Amino acid sequence: MEFEIPKMSAALPEMFVLGMACLILVIDLFLTDKNRIITYLLAQATLVGAAIASLGYQFGSPEIAFNGSFIRDAMGDTLKVFIYLSVFVVFLYSRSYLQARNLFRGEFFVLGLFGVLGMMIMVSAHSLLTLYLGLELLSLSMYALVAMNRDSSYSSEAAMKYFVLGALASGMLLYGMSMLYGVTGSLELSQISAGVATAGAGNMVLVFGLVFTVVGLAFKLGAVPFHMWVPDVYHGSPTAVTVYIGSAPKIAAFAMVMRLLVDGLEGLQEHWQGMLVILAILSLALGNITAIAQTNIKRMLAYSTIAHVGYLLLGVLSGSDSGYASAMFYTIVYALMSLGGFGMIMLLSRTGFEADRLDDFKGLNERSPWFAFMMLILMFSMAGVPVFLGFWAKLSVLSAVVEAEMVWLAAVAVVFSIIGAFYYLRVVKLMYFDKPEDNTPIDSEFDVRVMLSANSLAILVLGLFPGALMSLCVNAFAL
Amino acid sequence: MADNMQNIYLTVALAPLVGAIVAGLFGRFISRSVAHTVTIAGVAVSAALSLYVFKHIVIDGGEPFNGAVYTWMVSDGVRFEVGFLVDSLTAMMMVVVTWVSLMVHIYTIGYMHDDPGYKRFFSYISLFTFSMLMLVMSNNFMQLFFGWEAVGLVSYLLIGFWYKRPTAIFANLKAFLVNRVGDFGFLLGIAAVLMYFNSLDYADVFSAAPMMADMTIQVIPGVEWSLMTVICILLFIGAMGKSAQVPLHVWLPDSMEGPTPISALIHAATMVTAGIFMVARMSPLYELSTTALTVVLVVGSITALFMGILGIIQNDIKRVVAYSTLSQLGYMTVALGASAYAAGVFHLMTHAFFKALLFLAAGSVIIGMHHEQDIRKMGGIKKYMPITYWTMLIGSLALIGFPGFAGFFSKDAIIEAVHLSQTPGAGFAYFAVLVGVFITAFYSFRMFFLVFHGEERMDKHAREHLHETPWVVTGPLIALAVPSVVVGAIFIGPMLFGDFFNGAIFVSPERDVLGKLGENFHGWFAFILHGLATPALYLAMAGVGAAWFLYMKRPDIPEMIKARAGVVYTVLEHKYGFDDFNDKVVAAGSRALGRLLWQVGDVKLIDGFVVNGTAKGVGWLSAVIKHIQTGFLYHYAFAMFVGLFALIALFVF
Question: To which H or E segment does residue B442 belong?
């Protein structure tokens, strides 16, 4: 076997993040709690640096490096940039939240960065091995993050559940991967793709492996019936962790779906399309309907996430480039909205008060008209009210489904989005038409206020001018 | 250069919007004088730049601009854009709109001086100017519709400006509803254009139109309709609503409930002419359908004649002017129907100046009389308000088409063009516009004599306070009086018979009545001399004479006629019964239908069963499903396995 030096430059951002994460881990050891802010600043600098590394690298066609196990392409780079952006915003929102709860420790940022590295590897994976490597790196970081607040029984319980179920799901995914390897004889996605073509879509072992693979993916995405961990984890984690879990990892999970099902197993589309239809409908139904009965806004947003995953799957299952682009658009839009939603909870919270009940939003308009308006934008966007960004996301996945000649499915999705509108609009109603329960002034840091306003306004402005973001997603699949 | 011009066009449209936003949204933080300074500055910038654009396009012969400024979205290959089409027609409209608007802005300082809604008013009229500019500068149907609805909205807001008056609220609701009828047709027309041309861009549609000329569609199975006729008539229904043509005219007289400056700006000079402008802009489409042109011609002539007759019996000074507006809009529509688009637009321009003048002069009288509008309580005001008197006289002479004044040229051109037209219905139209001349002269001077001459019928208190209005009122009057005299003589040559509208208005050769007329055109002075030999002038003179005789010399005769002509008078007093019909049949009928649908359809079916029923159902389901989330880890794992096995069962075996 010939040995060649791998093309390192393709993985430059990954190496940068890895190096920085290790460096920060060490530096953090020598910092006192008073200087902990340095860890925070370094972490943010790492994300900015990674973004520069990703954006500053020119390439023409997709590049495959490290003996076929790593790919760098337009979709990957776009997704990575949005991952950095999301995590940057997460860290920014979290700083004062963590400080107020005595949770402002280096682990949060280091684990967060390792999670980012995991996501980057997932996004750029070109073999089953790298894919799994990235997935586990991300998952392990997240298990630890969920349990970060050791003294909270909720957090420990959530972490426990997440870990056990995650292990189960990983097992299923690995089992599925082993089947795929068995039939095609390779771990590399392009060779798997070729192997599938040779074996034919009717090969029962392949389909068997596919089912397990899809189950693994569905767990990561939180699609029904593999969603059970989502509400408990979202609810039990400190909000700073929830916003982390609820944003960037969804982008990575989307990338994983694309890598496995489209890059690797497009030959089995007739099978996975049917599976995704079932998962999507169940997610839409259960997510939207159950969210109505929630009284805790973190749980409500967890169910709303499940519903959003349903829409995202609609884009993927339509099986065309425009469908994939719409799903990518949806994922990015979802991440932005989710950041804003959980960010708002953190903004309203203070020491000893989590602001995570729906009732805590009552009369927000009287307490702060500006942030009530910001929340209104977020809720309208999540509900898919026209001109807000969420509307265009829903519209694009629905038109992808219609193009794939599954009008009935689009109709089902629309019906569930109408049901879903209820619980988003209820938040608006609480903010504007109810009396506040407490009138404590909103006490939050300046940077959080600015970031949150920018976050919400971005959803409004991008909604008015959706062309740029959409063409970014379309271009990701044009190469 | 093109970029430079594009910026100028943008500035023209947006400057009034800035003023409107400042005065409207930040009204609380600024004083009255800041509000009017900002809005007037915005409109003044537009007005000055409009003149520059006019010079660039018309005088220097610059290239017409047609381009998108912003692409909103592209859906299914159809581009939805904000864009400008600036050619001679647009340039002319821009000048008219911005200058009349500027005059009205200045005038408003005086007219609305004591009104608590001062800043709101300035915000509205600036917003109106922006909307109207968007309408006339549009290069596509979507933006046209935006402008169309935006001016309609501002009109609605301004008619109901004094929102505490029940009559004003009634009037603005009426205007809104009647315009809905027209807009429905307009929207259907635009939809038809989009459906068959797959584009909303004027240029695309106009270039594709000749190929569609013979196309027929079946809306009702078995009945073939010409596509062009359907589109043109639907669009014209929109124009009928906006430009107040019979039978959608009923809102315009009532719109006089609004403050006088907006009656001048919106309900005389600019907005109501949007329909005329639109049809002229769409001339390449209308030329393809004789049927549509006939409809336009007949509707226009009915409006011109019968609405003028109603002006005779009005006693409210603004309503007299309002009915004359209706009648003059009818003239413009007749010109369009006779394919003399240029004449229609020419009349639109002259009318904008002299009718704005008449309204503002009427407003000046109203200010002098302390908001008394009944002409029976006026008389002999001439000596108290000389400037108002002379400007009103100029406006009235322009309106009746006295030789040399602006209205003479445009109205005579329309009459001559209709005379030559071969379009079916032209015979009736010719009769209507000729008789209309007499009637116009009659009611105009009836009002003029009753207001300014004869005995003073106002009470003592009013007489003591009667004096000329301040310069902010008289200034605009004088400024509008000048074009009311000269604009006709200056522009008749180039606009009607020259190449002014080349490329902007399209007339097919066999219908080119203005071209035929132009063969005998030898300058404006010769046109006046020719006018001396036509019946129109003598009819106008007869009208003035009759008014003088009946209302100055023998005021007892009108009373006598009123007593004798019972039925005719009743019919006129009820305005031919349009309002009664609308109230009793249309409004009452739709209310009854609405009540039925509400009680059966809404309350029982939709609310009871569909809305509350499903809401209850979903709520119940939600409460049940949430119990699936038990919190037990082994239940969660179990659910995953159920899912896994279900998928295997479905897809593997």
Answer: helix B426-452
